[in-house]
């Protein structure tokens, strides 16, 4: 049975659409999502009518996206579709969402549809306002992780965002998916390691201490500059995405924590001498990180692994070879990469450790 509230809100919506202030008919698209890069804010509401109400009360709101799922997220946009004949190209399919445009787009800084739309309010007002900062954009809106930012800001791009600490700090967030690390983004940078240098060899203090290393200078991107961020001890995770770069090519592999050991920080893993519980991945996947050929003896993989010739903080170790991050021992004088002693192969790489 239709409730009084639903009837009232339906009448309100009809009157709003027909009001003479706009010679414009609002449009609703079910199963569609409008990517504007012009978010005003994301809020949680009870239903789509709550989302409609918030957009109506916000002077800069042109349209909104409403998540029909359990999260009931309402994303208010400062932009919309200029001409509904282009709706198919302006909207993306997403069965869990509804897109509703309440007001017309009346101003663009560029005439061509192939150019970037205006970067200010494109509604009925002639004034331009800078977009309000979103989660992670400023210290006052620091987030707990890159994953949290992406969950609230679906259009968030790769780049540096503020995470929570005292004081808050900027860290690189990989918001787009990484090949071989799954279909989702939201990865938080922890370390960048130059395998030709000794900064992060197995025995160096940075694995057992909380000190950051060139965080402010090199922690906001994936440049080939070594760094260790506060995320090492402050950001909990379930999965790691490990990358090795040789020449201009980065290869990746995903490693997950075992059940019962999830949702913890990186720092405690390296405080104990024994191996920590990562889910097993194949030898072939490790070899996919760098051009390599591990010897056929028994291998051990995970964290804090060692034998009488080598030590590896994260990686895979055989009797005559290894692939790893934070390496050490007599087998090879590198801190990240691939070594095989019987074939005299030593391949340092530039390593990336990201978590989510």
Automatic annotation (TrEMBL):
One of its GO terms (cellular component) is extracellular space. Keywords: Calcium, Disulfide bond, Lectin, Metal-binding, Signal. It holds the Pfam family PAN_1. GO terms for molecular function: metal ion binding; oligosaccharide binding. InterPro entries: Fibrinogen-like_C, Fibrinogen_a/b/g_C_1, Pan_app. Residues 1-23 form the signal peptide. The keyword Disulfide bond applies. Residues 32-83 form the Apple domain. This is Apple domain-containing protein. It comes from Exaiptasia diaphana. The lineage of its organism: Eukaryota, Metazoa, Cnidaria, Anthozoa, Hexacorallia.
